[in-house]
Amino acid sequence: MKDLAFEESHGSQRRERITILIAGGGGFLGSHLCEKLLGEGNRIICVDNFQTGSRRNVAPFIENPDFSLIEQDVCIPLKIKEPVNQIYNMACAASPPSYQQNPIHTLMTNIIGAKNLLDLARRKGARILQSSTSEIYGDPEIPLQVESYNGNVNTCGPRACYDEGKRAAETLFWEYNELYGVQTRVARIFNTYGPRMHPKDGRVVSNFIVQALEGENLTIYGDGSQTRSFCFVSDMVDGLVRLMASNETMPVNIGNPDEFTILDLAKIVQRKTLTRSRIEFTSLPKDDPRQRRPDIGRAAAVLDWAPKVSLDEGLDHMIAWFREELIGPRLTDALVQ
Ligand SMILES: NC(=O)c1ccc[n+]([C@@H]2O[C@H](COP(=O)([O-])OP(=O)(O)OC[C@H]3O[C@@H](n4cnc5c(N)ncnc54)[C@H](O)[C@@H]3O)[C@@H](O)[C@H]2O)c1
Fold first, then answer.
1. Max CA separation in the chain (angstroms)
2. pTM exceeding the 0.85 threshold for the entire prediction
3. Which of 29, 120, 205, 250 is least surrounded by Cβ atoms within 10 Å, i.e. has the fewest?
């Protein structure tokens, strides 16, 4: 296998081509990571059980000799013969309806799956990044969530399998770093949106856009005064790659600090899609967080990172992408899955 050198996208440093394993590489964020890191000349091993991801997301890479796909659940220990330099753990259903379908499996993915990947990192001497989440803050009592905030999480509720699983995974990462010196990185990801989100997975940005384009009412859970901060996928992938390259072993928030109410978002989508769809209100699910806004001071300091894409611009990209998808075959596939 020949070694290629490439320019890092965010610096002038030259680095050698490396082998990167992306667990959950068939999902929304994972497939964008595959695309970026493959494009930079690396070898990519994608591991996915396609629980929520899609073979269509990785179809453009399948013929690439630098890309290989292993269809496997990360709860089963991974046997990889070749050297691995970096591991991104993106494997976990991310939308509440998906992760609540099989809550025990969600918890096990976050704990057993993370442990299997940490064991692999330890065996291979690889650096490993965990896709943690703003959900580890639960329903926060502070308006701006900083990494030192310990959160307000319910251990016995419908979101607990995800939130508590992600919290336990952070602890596993911390212990593997402390006990075994594994090079761990932890990204606390805030709501991210963009092309390749599953049109029917129930996340708010894709929900509103699909509803607006299909002429259905936009469904708001609660009165719409709860807030979220939305990060475009290219900014998120850039932040994750920078974190992997950094020396920071403590968790880092990555997200866009511009905060919107859900009602604001619905109105923006209505305006941008020129839909006749109306807004309808329905009951708020249990434990739905009231607010979400990242303090990104640490990301700025240690990664020299800040988001570049505004919600206005990002929504234009996403709406254009969904317009194409909804008249193409993807929605038909989604409906029969
Ligand atoms: N997108 C966001 O806004 C967001 C926010 C916070 C955290 N995250 C985290 O980022 C990661 C990726 O999220 P996403 O938005 O791309 O979600 P996604 O559902 O599109 O992708 C998750 C991928 O993991 C795979 N997967 C799930 N369980 C698996 C298992 N046991 N074994 C192997 N593969 C498995 C799925 O098939 C899918 O391809 C997740 O860990 C999620 O918790 C995402």
1. 58
2. yes
3. 250
